[in-house]
Amino acid sequence: MRPILENSRTRDETSFHLCSSVRTGKPRSLTNSRSSNPDFRRPLYTRSNRSIYSQLKMSCPAPSLKDLPKVAGDLKSELEGFNKSNNLKNADTQEKIILPSAEDVELEKTHNALIAGVENFQQSTLKRTDTKEKIVLPNAQDVASEKNEKALITGIENFEKSKLKHTETQEKNPLPDKDVVQQEKTHQNLINGVEQFDKTTMRHALTTEKNVLPDPEVIEQEKGQKNFISGIENFDRTKMKHTETQEKNPLPTKEAIDQEKSA
């Protein structure tokens, strides 16, 4: 005879069904629970496990009424008074299956092909190569510039301050001449006249708008100006001739030097 309790899970299931048999008073079988296991296709309540059944009958008493789970009163009344026809509404479920676009399919194919290429890559196809390190030497110009820079830095660091000569700074504050003073006075008087102007001295005046038509001289002058502007805008540069500019820097005369020193 094959044993019924083969592992812990089998013992738990057997105990559960035996307890159910004890509560109901009827033997229960596991014929429908595990159809793939031949050990569960025969009734558990047999002569071989009658002792187990008697022990479980004593250890699994039927629960009393007070031990049963209780439902709250408001919840019970709400469940009993629930009306499906009035409270529930009919709703249609729409199943949406979004198919990928052609771009998504192409991207996924490319990604899968890349992964497959990396995973199935054959290292035997690689060829051995030698890395060549090239050290480029500086040319003569770079060496000369570096020498000049080092000599300049050395000269600054080793400079002797004792070779410097003492100098005195002279601050010059030239006074303004008569023309400058007169110009400043005129400007100040103009500002004071504008700020302190008495508006009560003004007289009321009527503005007469005159739209004077231009005379033939003004029209001719305006035409000449327009022709001049159009000639500048439409000027042909190809007609110009090449010229060389001579820069002249005349030296100041003795009188100019004396005048600058006296100032």
UniProtKB/TrEMBL annotation:
Compositional bias per record (Polar residues), positions renumbered to this chain: 17-38
Q: Where is the composition biased (Basic and acidic residues)?
A: 235-247
Q: Where is this region: Disordered?
A: 1-44, 235-263
InterPro entries associated with the record: Beta-thymosin, Beta-thymosin_sf
Subcellular location(s) per record:
Cytoplasm, Cytoskeleton
Please provide the record's keywords in A-Z order: Cytoplasm, Cytoskeleton
Q: What is its main location?
A: cytoplasm
Q: Which domain of life is it from?
A: Eukaryota
Which family is annotated?
A: Belongs to the thymosin beta family.
Protein name per the record: Uncharacterized protein LOC108569163 isoform X1
Its source organism is Nicrophorus vespilloides (Boreal carrion beetle)
